[in-house]
Amino acid sequence: MVIGGQVLSGAGLTLGYLAIALSQEIVPKVHRPRTQMLTAVFAGLATITGPIIGGAFIKHNVSGVGNGWRVGFYLGAAFYFLAFASILFFYTPGPRPNPEGLPMKKRIFRVDWAGIFMVAAGLTLFLVGLFYGGNPDKWTSARVLGPLIVGAVVLIAFGVYEWKATSTGLLAHVFFKHRNFALGCLMNFVGGIVLFGGQAFLPQEIIHLYTSDAVMTGVYNLSFSIFAVTGGVVLFIWLRFTNNAKWVTVFAMGTIVVGAGLMAVMQPHINYSAWFFPTALLGVSVGVQTAVVPLIISLCTPNEMIGTAIMISNSARSFGGSIGTVIFQQIFTSKIKKILPQKVVPAVMKAGLPPTSVPSLLEAYAAGNSALFAKIPGVTPAVLNALTTSAAQAYANSFRYIWYALLAFACVSLALSLFFHSTTKQMTMEIAAGIEHHPHHLPHLPHLPHHEHGGEHGGEHKVSQEQKEQV
Q1: How far is 429 from 425, CA to CA, in rounded Å?
Q2: What is the pLDDT of residue 437?
Q3: What is the pLDDT of residue 415?
């Protein structure tokens, strides 16, 4: 049941990324920053309210004791149904860009199914090996090395196949006519390590260092979520005056460098304001970066391939996020195994716990079962207080190494962002695929002739004054 649900959720979430392409292709290029801002705002509102609402369901045992978490999924299902109905009944796209004039059946057969299979198989095997490495299996075991090596070989074969065997495959060669596409994908990969990897550990750090209350956990995460929305607004305002997405990307990655550096010095039980500032910086960076890179990629790719280009870039981010999460988890696991006993054992023994009871105390703490503490000889309120304080410090010291590693990747992202070309001349009135209008609506924009999207500015298109007046 759980595996099936995760498979369906993963497939749905991945297809949901197409909403980015849909919102980009129906408006003139010069107005795409506005659609990205609106997308970021609505997504941000969900990330702000979702954790608090879900935490309230859990805390108050909505739908029964221990079943509050289920209600969050029910609520999510309702919103997904609304999204499905909205797209089904109200999204009426015009004719898709099809410069070769191929019928649908031939277009389906021309999909790079071999490339899709290789990249899916390679990524799956590689991530499985990465996940099992170190915990529970040794890195030198066949269970780890087998999937890692085979997955890496398949991914290399995929790259060679896309390079030498086909020019119109999943990684169509036309994508690479403009430098911003390759940079955007690489940026998304490294950025995925930084953004998804770091974001995955924020809730854990809140729980272990500050509060385990389900609602307050969401409150502590508000600074990140609210400023992620703010990042989308910052992007719109910036591009409203400059039309150049390069420097706002540099700003975003510089912000996450500062935020990650500050997160590396967090201590348990600090006041909320000290937690607020670095997480707000992380939120702004996430809000800008997740919106601006798809925008840059959509501007430098052919109109008929915007969806494919954005999906490739998002896949690169997801792949990076998966690798980053595993890397950071491995770092954290290795550190907490060493640091936790070093901090806890002297503290609880100083508080009066007999040495013979230390192993039982550590096992009970690892199990997360507070009822077991009462059965351990020598456990007193003073011992439990020492355990809580020393364990929080151990977790703080262990989380610190995650931010050290993340900081290195953030610096790489900052360096990559400096190589983007300006997008100023790409911000035109060209529309990739308009929406069909009924007669009583505004007249439909005449289809603009497709042309080669190469060159320095990735397919800049001039719209005549007559076409503008018709709009």
Answers
A1: 11
A2: 53
A3: 93
In angstroms, how far is the first alpha carbon of the chain from the final one? 51
Q: Which pLDDT score, from 0 to 100, does residue 446 have?
A: 46
| Sign of the CA dihedral with 247 first, then 252, 253, and 255 last | positive
Distance (Å, rounded) from C-alpha 348 to C-alpha 319? 42
CA dist 255 to 91, 197, 264, 284, 468, Å?
Answer: 37, 16, 14, 8, 39
**Domain boundaries defined on the chain:** 2-97+104-112+166-338+392-426
Beta carbons of 256 and 285 less than 8 angstroms apart: yes
Report pTM: 0.76
Q: Which CATH superfamily is domain 2-97+104-112+166-338+392-426 in?
A: MFS general substrate transporter like domains (1.20.1250.20)
Reference 293, options 417, 134, 146; nearest CA is 417
Q: Which two tokens stand for residue 419?
A: 């190589």
d(CA 133, CA 369): 27
The counts of H helices and E strands in the chain are 16, 0
List the chain residues with pLDDT less than 70. Answer: 94-97, 99, 430-471
